[in-house]
Write the structure tokens for this entry.
Amino acid sequence: MDLNFDLYMNDVVEQARKEIENAGYEQLTTPEDVDAVLKKDGTSLVMINSVCGCAGGIARPAAEHALHFDKLPDRLVSVFAGQDKEATQRAREYFEGYAPSSPSFALIKDGKITEMVERHQIEGHDIMDVITQLQNLFEKYCDKR
């Protein structure tokens, strides 16, 4: 593979990681990290991050802006599809009934999937649509802050 392409992709991945961390999400990079968080009581929003255009242009901005709401999950976490493969695979084991999809969002409550916002609900939609979908999940499953 071309060294310049590898350096470019490393920059893209690092920027994507920084964006989601700066929005307040903890990155889960190992299967053990995933289990430690998703087995807890309460709610966790899992953002399945990726390097695709709809992740950078829609999903990550929506992940940040959706947090301006009265009800929020107890925990905000992210796994990075294609980068932290084992962590992503473990997270997907919690998403029973849903096909692998990235970018996407999963709301876990007391260790069980409630609902997901899948790639087909992100790609081709505008940021406000995705924010609304996330906030609808918060309204339905999360406690007031």
